[in-house]
Amino acid sequence: MGRDRFENGLFAVLKPIVIVLLLIVAVFPFYYMVLLSFRSLDSLLQNPGALWISIEELDLATYLEVLAPVSDGGQGFVVFMRNSLLVALSTVVLTLLVAIPGAYAVSRLRFFGRRQVSALFLAVYFFPAILLAVPLFVFFTQLGLRGSLVALVVVYVSQVAAVSIYTLRNYFATVPVSLEEAAAIDGCGRLQTMWKISLPLAMPALVSNGLFIFMIAWNEFLFALLFLVEKRDSWTVSLGLSQLSGSIEVPTTVLMAGSVILTLPIIILFFASERLLVGGLTAGAEKG
């Protein structure tokens, strides 16, 4: 009892300390980035280490410069965000259209090599993207699609479809077969059963998988650089941010404002779908 009481007391003391330390490590860099984005360059040069500023010091000029079109002397991030949103949403929709029937088939249908196919889906994701960079660059150049957002979407879908199928397969395996058998007795076909029974039950996994795909497409840089670097109007937000960081003429405050704009949509999506995300990530852990 003495040892148990000691361990409980020790954990009671260490738990809040560890939580606070983790919060500082995770939140402080983002806080300082947001703080710098709202400061003027003069204020930053005078006191670069300030961790708190007054309301009078808040300056929105950096965000206006980042969002303003290039013709008005800005960085044109509105166009970049539009392109990134279009690419990310298209990637999510097309990947789920491919992954849902593929995962359901691997989970429910019996065919030769079923287990090997599941392992192959996961193994494809282990290959570094850089191995495909040159072949894909040559391929889409020959097709005349270099500089096109369509080519970028095709590449992203091919990258994440395999791991999406593997992830959703584990979740579909947790859906009781008896529910689908009952639907079949009531006259539902295979597609009706998947649409009316399996998909509603798999919604947490679909949301978490969609968010995972969205984050990859939103933040991806390598293929965006390869395909779009010559056509500024088609740049994604990650490519635009890299252009800011690589320029000595762009102030640090403007770079931080661009970083906040890049990060904020992911944070909003994460907190908006947090409950479904946690359920989807833990689903399939015990079966499949």
UniProtKB/TrEMBL annotation:
<dbReference type="InterPro" id="IPR050901">
    <property type="entry name" value="BP-dep_ABC_trans_perm"/>
</dbReference>
<feature type="transmembrane region" description="Helical">
    <location>
        <begin position="201"/>
        <end position="228"/>
    </location>
</feature>
<keyword id="KW-0812">Transmembrane</keyword>
<feature type="transmembrane region" description="Helical">
    <location>
        <begin position="149"/>
        <end position="168"/>
    </location>
</feature>
<keyword id="KW-1133">Transmembrane helix</keyword>
<protein>
    <submittedName>
        <fullName>Carbohydrate ABC transporter permease</fullName>
    </submittedName>
</protein>
<feature type="transmembrane region" description="Helical">
    <location>
        <begin position="12"/>
        <end position="34"/>
    </location>
</feature>
<dbReference type="InterPro" id="IPR000515">
    <property type="entry name" value="MetI-like"/>
</dbReference>
<feature type="domain" description="ABC transmembrane type-1">
    <location>
        <begin position="81"/>
        <end position="273"/>
    </location>
</feature>
<keyword id="KW-1003">Cell membrane</keyword>
<keyword id="KW-0813">Transport</keyword>
<feature type="transmembrane region" description="Helical">
    <location>
        <begin position="85"/>
        <end position="107"/>
    </location>
</feature>
<comment type="similarity">
    <text>Belongs to the binding-protein-dependent transport system permease family.</text>
</comment>
<dbReference type="Pfam" id="PF00528">
    <property type="entry name" value="BPD_transp_1"/>
</dbReference>
<feature type="transmembrane region" description="Helical">
    <location>
        <begin position="119"/>
        <end position="143"/>
    </location>
</feature>
<feature type="transmembrane region" description="Helical">
    <location>
        <begin position="248"/>
        <end position="272"/>
    </location>
</feature>
<keyword id="KW-0472">Membrane</keyword>
<dbReference type="InterPro" id="IPR035906">
    <property type="entry name" value="MetI-like_sf"/>
</dbReference>
